[in-house]
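lol ok so funny story. i was supposed to be doing the assay writeup but got distracted and ended up predicting the structure for this chain instead. priorities right. anyway since i did it might as well share w the group, maybe its usefull for someone
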Amino acid sequence: MKYNIIFLFFIFSFINLFANEKKNNNFLFEVKTAYFHFQDDTARAIYSDGGFMPSIEGSYRLYKVLHLFSEAAFFYKNGKVELTETKNRLIFVPVSLGLKPIFDISKSKKMKFYFKVAPNWYWVQEKQKYPFLKRKKSKTGFGGTFGIGALQYITPNFVLDVFFNYLYDKKTIKDPVSELKFKRYFGGIQAGAGLGYSF
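and the output, tada:
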């Protein structure tokens, strides 16, 4: 209990420290969550369409409306192949680094619109539990992130972000039983919201 109080006191002190300083609003840090919907039919069948994908993002103003951003997300889901009674577990971690132009769409400059484009590196692990054996495979690769969103400044520093992203990520998987190789598409659509702090 005392550690929770100390942690909350530290967070409050940290926010209060920045609140008393002059802001240039060059940095924006966000904590976000989204519903992730697989585009691939096979992935949707195994993992029941999709699930929630939390993420964190930081961005920095490079020049006028142009921002550099980096984002890391995490997706975890259990699934099942009904035909073979195979139980699956998927962990998917995409990390993006790209550009995000942000434009004012109101005279008060409290509402903004943005789009973003970035390559992403991803790590994916798929664990399969057959009736007679267990297999776990991990792999990394490269894909892409494309998105649009709107920012609403609740205060001069706190920001509400509503966004819609498309992730492109494909990998080749080797089935441990049949030894067949096939391409699994882990890309899909993200729709969600986040809360950020600009400083």
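Residues 24-198 form a domain with the Porin fold (CATH 2.40.160.20). The chain has one domain: 24-198.
back to the writeup now i swear
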